[in-house]
Amino acid sequence: MNGMRLKLARSKCGFSLRDLESRIDNLVSAQAIGKYERGEMSPGSAVLIALSRALGVSIPYLLASQEVELSGVEFRTKCNTSAKDRARVETEVIEWVERYVQIEEILALDSAGWSCPKGMPRRIKGPGDAEKLADDLRAEWQLGTGPIPSMTEVLEERGVKVLLTELPEKVSGLTCLVKRPNNRSAIPVIVANCRQTLERRRFNLAHELGHQVISPGGAEDIEKLCHRFAGALLVNGEHLRREIGGRRSSVGVREILDLKRLYRVSAAAFLMRLEQVGALEHSQVEYAFRTYANRWRTEEPSPLENDDSERPKRFERMVYRAAAEDMISISKAVELLRLPLSEVENGLRGPVVAHASHR
């Protein structure tokens, strides 16, 4: 029994020791559960199963002997996050990363494929440095200067694990490192909030990447610099200046909405980007937010369709690959994907088509 994980899972549910005692029908006392959490006792199989069910976590999660733990967890919030919410998200991330690493090991892939780009994390001091960092990262990753179709795919291809899940409404996302035993490299993880619009999720993914490539030392406001980095990464300055035609006396709403859909960012972020690249004056942008764009920060105009372009696919793809090559059983694929058997079978063989009988 991994006592720390038991305690984390209990916190995610918001249970006291006595609450958990009641939830498992008083199979053991609250004092005994406390001893499990402190590593002073181990539960029998019946109690272990009851704890797993009551807490909504798997038995392997509770029994893990090699501890995977999170470090440097940073929630991006508009307000303080409750201990219960933090514990729920951290529990989900740990369970998911363990399944992710497990399938990578089955396929003999290196989970620590992430290596911070050359010269990063970089200490930067102002907006100009953030712009330069975004340009350098695009060059390092050979992304060119055009729009990025999928931020999720860019991150997953380079070793950053991306989890899309339901976070508290005011939490935009989080970033952390997953520490593994035996001195193996830590795994960077970015968690995005599926409640948010596609535009917001893309921007938040780029923002969280900023926290991986920007050194916190020396920056007066790391959040503002990560915002500037995200805007510059998604809407390259050189490319935008070509599209917009340099400095402008004004820009029409239809043009803004068309271009915001080209770059797949929010209209408010795109309007700010026009000022940042020198296409519009600060006074022009201020006027826009006072008039036709006064609701753009809360209501997205001409929103992107909520397609699956930013849905993480690598983990699912690896599981289906292992199952197709008989490296794992279908039941193991069901366990890893946490999907119904029928859905996994459809993913492997396609839907069953009824054939008309011939007389």
Structure description:
The protein is an alpha/beta fold and 359 residues long. It has helices at residues 3-13, 17-23, 30-37, 45-55, 59-63, 83-106, 127-140, 151-157, 198-213, 222-234, 237-244, 253-263, 267-276, 282-290, 314-324, 330-337, 341-349, and strands spanning 69-77, 122-123, 161-165, 171-179, 187-193, 214-215. A 4-stranded mixed beta sheet has the order 1-4-5-3, with helices on both faces. Strands 2-6 form a two-stranded parallel ribbon. Helix 6 (83-106) runs parallel beside helix 15 (314-324), helix 7 (127-140) crosses helix 10 and helix 13 (267-276) packs antiparallel against helix 14 (282-290). The longest helix is centred in the first third of the chain and has 24 residues, at 83-106.
Supply the key terms.
359 residues; alpha/beta; four-stranded mixed sheet; 17 helices; 6 strands
Number of helices: 17
Structural class designation = alpha/beta
Counting DSSP E segments of at least 2 residues, the number of strands comes to: 6
Relative strand content: 5-15%
Main sheet specs: 4 strands, mixed
End-to-end Cα distance, whole Å, is 61 Å
How are helices and strands ordered from N to C?
HHHHHEHEHHEEEHEHHHHHHHH
Q: What proportion of the residues is helical, as a percent range?
A: 40-55%
Q: Strand order, biggest sheet?
A: 1-4-5-3
Radius of gyration of CA atoms, rounded to a whole number: 24 Å
From the spread of the alpha carbons, the general shape counts as elongated
Low-confidence stretches: none
Mean pLDDT reading: 89
